[in-house]
């Protein structure tokens, strides 16, 4: 949130120094109490919405926004002194007759019971360092971080990469970076990410008029709309002509370095939208849908909870880990392990011919077209999100629909390791290295466990998930036997993967619950990390190949 006329400044709370935080908290407390006393005992009204759909300051000098921010700090700040003082300030405001907000929902994810996530204040030393780093960089500890922290090694790499893309020296100005994040997240109607980056965009001095719609942004950003659309939904259609159009548009042209930065940001936020929907990430406490000023009802659920998607019913669906193991779901784990063992034995005994391998890839690619969920229905994006991009009807389409043929993308001809990595590093130094590290951590991450079983080699399963995602994008590894995918990934799992990767906004809790029913939530989050990175790399491969072709 932008500071208002110097009255409430939040910067000092991000300091590692306790004395600096204490001074900032005193100043914040005094400013809020002064503002509160001028309107007591009239209750604060929640933020209202302007006709154009943008959040505008609430009545009473925007006090409700400030109180929502304090509520977030009291629950989500990694520094205990800030949590305690924020709570004390809220209590002081309440004592003078002003209604204070309360959180909506149950923890950082709608799919994972709050008691099974890491509680802020109960984290170990390594996690605390990650939380403090994230808070210092962003001024918040967001719900994505609180779910990703199931895998601290990956989270550290993710935060480092995201910080570099958004805040360190680079070809694009800061407000462009956040606006591109908004454009990318909006392609999947991801209001969670759009809301976060609207706030960040304004905080770094972005022009609020741009938020009224893409047509109000500079022509240079409008020109990026077509690439954003294709990358998000049909990256196989990107050609060197699309790249040439962006680089040679006279006064609104992009430089190669700027374009690489933009492409990495677009792919980062498309895949992060997949994670957000795939893990059921809840709205941030201080954002719309994350808090309410209404008192709780007798049953602990009021109509505002229900309209925001927080049903008591969700709690009835016991978590996969918390439920009593059914024979069927225990057998599911055993059967999967047995298939892995048999496939390994077959590998050792005989190897399929290149022709057979190619046939199996084409078969799997074709079959992936017919994997769709029962929830698969067209949903029109709301005006609130759709104004950040053009052509709202343009979505994911399978390759060979309506007789359209897309040539297979052979990794042997253009790969991240041999081609993409060096191109990114050359035009946007260090980013190739950061992305490479993140891809490798996600792909190789293992605890050698499957549900309750220990000392299990899961490499075959991880490779099947990664290669299935790339197969859906037409990307083929000549040395991989695609027959393994059907052996290891059942239909409910394929439905979940395809939905999260291709149309994440259609992901439901039922889909999340229906695959790998006896696995830990941390293992399902691990699957989502594979989906995020495999999707990002697939999009990057198509964009970088087109850029390489333009350059040669």
TrEMBL record:
Gene Ontology BP annotations: cellular response to L-leucine; cellular response to leucine starvation; negative regulation of TORC1 signaling; positive regulation of macroautophagy; regulation of response to reactive oxygen species
Keyword annotations of the record: Cytoplasm, Oxidoreductase
Pfam families tied to this protein: PA26
The keyword Protease appears for this protein: no
Gene3D superfamilies found in the cross-reference section: AhpD-like
The keyword Oxidoreductase appears for this protein: yes
Location in or out of the cell: Cytoplasm
SUPFAM superfamilies the record matches: AhpD-like
Superkingdom assignment: Eukaryota
Coiled coil: none
Any one Gene Ontology molecular-function term assigned to this protein's record: L-leucine binding
Reactions mediated catalytically: a hydroperoxide + L-cysteinyl-[protein] = S-hydroxy-L-cysteinyl-[protein] + an alcohol
One annotated Gene Ontology cellular component of this protein: cytoplasm
Chief subcellular location: cytoplasm
Protein family according to the UniProt entry: Belongs to the sestrin family.
Annotated protein name in UniProt: SESN1 protein
């Amino acid at each position: 949130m932008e500071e208002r006329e110097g009255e409430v400044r939040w910067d000092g709370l991000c300091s590692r120094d306790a004395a600096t935080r204490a001074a900032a908290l005193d100043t914040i407390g005094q400013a809020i109490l002064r503002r509160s006393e001028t309107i007591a005992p009239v209750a604060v009204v929640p933020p209202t919405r302007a006709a154009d759909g943008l959040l505008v300051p609430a009545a009473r000098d925007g006090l409700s926004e400030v109180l929502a921010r304090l509520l977030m700090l009291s629950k989500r700040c990694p520094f205990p002194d800030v949590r305690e003082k924020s709570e004390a300030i809220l209590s002081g405001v309440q004592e003078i007759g002003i209604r204070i907000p309360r959180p909506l929902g149950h923890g950082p994810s709608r799919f994972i019971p709050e008691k099974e996530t890491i509680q802020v204040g109960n984290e170990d030393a390594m996690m605390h360092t990650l939380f403090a780093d994230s808070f210092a960089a962003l001024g918040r500890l967001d719900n994505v971080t609180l779910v990703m922290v199931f895998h601290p090694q990956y989270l550290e790499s993710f935060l480092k990469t995201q910080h570099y893309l958004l805040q360190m020296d680079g070809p694009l100005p800061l407000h462009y970076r956040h606006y591109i994040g908004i454009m990318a997240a909006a392609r999947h109607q991801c209001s969670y990410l759009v809301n976060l980056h609207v706030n960040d965009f304004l905080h770094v001095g972005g022009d609020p008029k741009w938020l009224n719609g893409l047509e109000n942004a500079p022509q240079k950003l409008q020109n990026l709309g077509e690439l954003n659309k294709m990358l998000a939904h049909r990256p196989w259609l990107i050609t060197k002509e699309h790249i040439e159009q962006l680089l040679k548009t006279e006064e609104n042209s992009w430089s190669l370095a700027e374009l690489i930065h933009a492409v990495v940001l677009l792919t980062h936020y498309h895949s992060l939208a997949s994670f957000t929907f795939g893990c059921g990430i809840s709205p941030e406490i201080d954002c719309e849908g994350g808090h309410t000023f209404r008192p709780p009802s007798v049953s602990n659920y009021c109509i505002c909870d229900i309209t925001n998607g927080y049903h008591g019913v969700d709690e009835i669906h016991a978590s996969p880990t918390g439920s009593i193991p059914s024979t069927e779901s225990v057998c599911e784990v055993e059967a999967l392990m047995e298939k892995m063992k048999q496939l390994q034995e077959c590998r050792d005994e005989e190897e399929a011919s290149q022709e057979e391998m190619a046939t199996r890839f084409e078969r799997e690619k074709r079959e992936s077209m017919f994997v769709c969920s029962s929830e698969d229905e067209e949903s029109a994006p709301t005006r609130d999100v759709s104004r950040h991009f053009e052509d709202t009807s343009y979505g994911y389409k399978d390759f060979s629909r309506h007789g359209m043929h897309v040539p297979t993308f052979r990794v042997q001809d253009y790969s991240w390791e041999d081609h993409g990595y060096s191109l990114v590093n050359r035009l946007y130094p260090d980013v190739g290295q950061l992305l490479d590290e993140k891809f490798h951590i996600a792909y190789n991450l293992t605890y050698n466990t499957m549900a309750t079983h220990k000392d299990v080699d899961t490499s075959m399963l991880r490779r099947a998930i990664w290669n299935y995602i790339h197969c859906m994008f037409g990307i083929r590894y000549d040395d991989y036997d695609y027959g393994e995918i059907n052996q290891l990934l059942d239909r409910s799992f394929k439905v979940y993967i395809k939905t999260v990767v291709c149309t994440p906004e259609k992901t439901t809790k039922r889909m999340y619950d229906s695959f790998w029913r006896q696995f830990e939530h941390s293992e399902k989050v691990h699957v989502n990390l594979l989906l995020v990175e495999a999707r990002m790399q697939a999009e990057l491969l198509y964009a970088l190949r087109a850029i390489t072709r333009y350059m040669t």
